[in-house]
Structures are given as C-alpha cells and as structure tokens.
Design brief:
Major facilitator superfamily (MFS) profile domain-containing protein, 2 strands, 20 helices, mainly alpha, MFS, about 500 residues
C-alpha cells in the first residue's frame, strides 16, 4: 500500500491523491505517507504554526456564522412560550390542552425528517442545505404571525419541526469536514453555547417586543415577525457566505487547501467528500456500540429537555414572583454555557470524551437529587437554587460531547451523518417524556419528576462508563494482537473506513 488516498472530486468521481495533496495538486506538501503496520507522524503536521493559522481562519470565518444561525434556530423554536405569555391562546381561542399539543407536535416531524434531510445535506453540501433550512424555519416563524386559529398554528408548527429537524446534525457533520477529531469538541461547544444564550435571553427579547404600544395587532405577532424576518435575511447571507468545503474556500491559499485536505484525510474522514450511499451508511447498524450510543442519547434527552422546558417551573418552586422567576433562570443558563466551554476545551486538550460525558451525567444526577431531597426548598433556598445550576451544568456538556464522541469513532462520512441524524433528534424527542413527567398535580416541587430525571442521569453515566471501559479493553486487545501500542489519534482515518472490522482500528475514548 502506498501513501495515496482516495478523494471525491467536485464531479463526484473518486481520484487517487497523495496523502497530503489534493486531486488537482497531488505533489503539494508531500512526505507524510505511511504503510500498514507502521505508525509514523502521518496524522500530525510538522508546521504547527501553519496548522494553527488554518484553524484560526476556520474559527473566524465559520463559527460566528454558524453560532448566529443556531441562535436564531433556538429562538424560532422556543418563541411559542414567549407568545403564550402575551395571550396567544386567548387571542386564537384555544381549547384546553391545545397549547400543549402545539408543543408536542413539533417533535414528530423533527424526528421523522431528520435522517432524510441530513442525507440530502450530505449529498448537496451542508453549506447550501443549512441556509435553505434556516430560510424555511424563518419563513414559518413569520407566517405564525398570520395564524388566526389552532389549525393554522398546528400546521405551521409541523412544518417548523420539519425545517429544523436536520439543522444540528448537519452542522456537526459540516464541522467534521474542517476540523480534526481532537479539535471538534470545543468548536461544537462554542456553536452550541448559542442555544444556551438564546434560552437565557429569549425572555428579555420578548419583554422588549411586548413594550410596543398602540398597535392594532397583538404584540406576540410582532415577536414572530421580527424574529422570523431577521432569520430569513441572515439565511440569505449565509447561503452565499459559507464555503461548500475547504477546497472551495476562497479565503484559503492553495497550500492551505492542501493542508486542510490532509488534516481531514488522516484525522476525520476515510474518504474526503465521499459520495453518499444509503446502503453503505446503513452499515453503521452492524456495530453493537451504535445502539449503546442511542441509549445514551435517550438518557441525555430526558434531563436536557426537562431543564429546557421546565427550568422556570423548578425555579418558580423557590417562591419567587413571576418577574424574578424569569430573571433567575438567566444565571443557570449562562453558567451552563460556561461549563460547556470549560469541559469541551478540557476534552480537546486531553483527547478524551467519555470521562467528561460521565461527569456531566453525574452533575445532572446530583443537581436533581439535591433539589428533590430538600423538604423545604424555600427554607433552604440557597442550596436549592445552587442545585438548579448543577442541572444546567450537567445537561449542557454531554449534549456536545456525546455527538463528538461517536463522530470521532466513525471515519465513514455517510455513516457518520446517518447516526448523528438519528441520535440528535432522538434526544430531542425525549421532550415528550419530560413533558409527561412534570405534571401539574406535582407542582410546585415536582418531586416524582425530579427523581425520574435523576435516574436517567445515573443510567446515562453507567452506560457511558461501561462503553468506555469496553473500548479501552478492546484497544488493549488489539494492541496485544498487533504487538504494538497505538493510540486512535495516531492512525490515519483512511485506514478506519470499515470501523471496528478493520484490524488497525482503535477506539477514540
């Protein structure tokens, strides 16, 4: 085997290239080849300054745009609750439980359409499909301002769930085509922190909009118009701004493009820009670890959605008035974003994922159990309020780490995007479970719900630790078989296309 690798050209054909070159410039930056059984520095780049400069360019050019896109995604998803506080149900003559039905129906198309839309994104490039999805959910948000009955709002929430379904999975896949496996967690954390910021300040935005005086239409309609309109405008900008790939990025020189290709070829994808094959992508379900990852997503989704949907009610149990209750939810959400960044940067620095996922689950478990164990939360208000901080710390970090973990262990691009498009919506679907755990008859403390959510956190920690132990033992077995100790980050991903079936495969812990 030579040091050549395969790469898809823009026309979809697969060409052979040098390990550090492009299909058009096969001799660029040569000299990093490897042969089977020999692990040299092929997964590393000698010119670290050039690599850091390249990463900074990606950081400055991609992350701010994607973060703003996800900010609007979170706002357009969650503004229904803000509209409800301004009398939307009364204005539209909702019957009992119809508002809860609007919340629930969103998750059905969100789960159903995530895999097919993600596959389309893989085929036509996330750089084009993501802005189209953003334009769609921005348009449906604006149209919500024109709804005059439950049926109209119900239909719009269905289409909103469709258009948002593949957004987060496609962003994850898109970033894996620019960054190495060990660089991904902190970039995803910066991106995901936009959601925490949206949760923290969506109420403040709504408060400002609801101050409009003398309008002929209810102010909640202005909220949909303003947030949806800005989303549509930004989607148009993103469509022309985002590069389809590093090879087509106009802000990179030819040498930087060659370096970017090499980084992904040896430390992210087995075949860069590989043409999507649904049959090959389904191969991900041959691996038992896939089902463990999906079970962990379920354990993550219940506390994640529980905090996202019911943190105001949990804080409200402390006895604060309505205005202060909304205000006191800001600090836990902001510190959740900070904890996410701290754990993500630590994970990339240590090149480990599983320990930080376990830590997140344990924080979740501790936060909910501490709150549930306090008999008089108003009498012990400081400890109870601190427990709400632990809840957000625990749910923020695993959401990013888990997606990063299984993406790090899948070199096949099609299988990577398929698993992500199922796992992420599955976690969001757990909002249906959380919404049924927090029952009105258990208010204001919701003790049964708190204990149930804590149990999901504990189960997630056990599953993650067990899977990590299996991966560690399997790596040891493979090292003994090969007679050499090899780390996952030292193996070019071109050799790991078949996953665990490959003799040289090593798990990224």
């Amino acid at each position: 085997m030579s040091s050549s690798a395969r790469a898809s050209s823009p026309d979809g054909t697969v060409k052979k290239t040098d390990a550090l070159g492009t299909a058009e410039e096969p001799n660029t930056l040569k000299g990093y080849g490897s042969v089977p059984g020999v692990i040299d520095e092929v997964t590393r780049v000698v010119d670290h300054k050039a690599e850091r400069r390249l990463c900074r360019k990606f950081d400055y050019r991609l992350l701010p745009i994607l973060a703003v896109m996800y900010l609007f995604n979170a706002l357009d998803k969650g503004n229904l609750g803000n509209a409800e506080t301004d009398g939307m149900s009364k204005d539209l003559n909702f019957k009992p439980n119809e508002y809860n039905l609007l919340l629930s129906i969103f998750f059905v198309p969100f789960v159903i359409f995530a895999p097919p839309f993600s596959m389309l994104g893989k085929k036509f490039s996330p750089a084009r499909v993501l802005p189209i999805l953003m334009f769609s959910f921005g348009s449906f948000t604006m149209l919500s301002s024109a709804a005059y009955n439950f049926s109209g709002m119900f239909a719009l929430r269905w289409f909103l769930g469709m258009s948002e379904a593949a957004f987060f999975p496609l962003v994850i896949y898109y970033l894996t085509t620019f960054y190495r496996r060990g660089e991904l967690a902190r970039r995803l954390a910066v991106f995901y922190a936009a959601s925490n910021i949206a949760n923290a300040f969506s109420g403040l935005i709504a408060f400002g909009v609801f101050q409009i005086k003398g309008s002929h239409i209810p102010n909640w309609r202005y909220l949909f118009i303003i947030e949806g309109g800005v989303t549509v405008l930004f989607a148009i900008f993103a469509f022309f701004y985002l590069p389809r790939s590093a090879a087509e990025a106009k802000f990179l020189s030819e040498e930087e493009k060659a370096l970017a290709f090499h980084r992904i070829q040896v430390d992210s994808s087995a075949v860069v820009n590989e043409e999507f094959s649904f049959r090959e992508a389904l191969g991900i379900f041959k691996h038992p670890t896939t089902y463990v990852f999906l079970c962990i997503e379920i354990c993550l989704g219940v506390p994640l959605q529980g905090v996202a949907l019911f943190l105001p009610q949990i804080v409200g149990g402390l006895g604060y008035p309505t205005v202060k209750t909304n205000l006191y939810t800001v600090a836990p959400n902001v510190t959740g974003a900070v904890m996410l960044l701290v754990l993500a940067f630590s994970s990339d620095w240590s090149k480990l994922r599983s320990p930080f996922i376990v830590l997140g689950f344990l924080l979740t478990f501790s936060g909910f159990m501490i709150y549930a164990s306090i008999d008089d939360v108003q009498g012990d208000i400081q400890v109870a309020y601190f427990a709400t901080f632990m809840m957000t710390w625990g749910t923020s970090a695993p959401s990013v780490m888990l997606s990063t973990w299984y993406n790090n262990n899948i070199a096949h691009e099609g299988r990577r995007v398929l698993l992500t498009s199922i796992g992420v919506p599955l976690a969001n679907l757990m909002g249906l479970v959380s919404s049924n755990l927090f029952r009105k008859q258990d208010a204001p403390k919701y003790t049964p719900a708190l204990i149930s959510v804590a149990a999901f956190g504990a189960t997630g920690a056990c599953l993650t630790a067990s899977l990590a132990l299996y991966m560690w033992l399997d790596n040891k077995r493979r090292d003994r078989s090969d007679g050499v100790k090899i780390r996952a980050r030292d193996i070019p991903t071109e050799r790991m296309r078949d996953g665990p079936a490959s003799a040289e495969f090593r798990w990224f812990l």
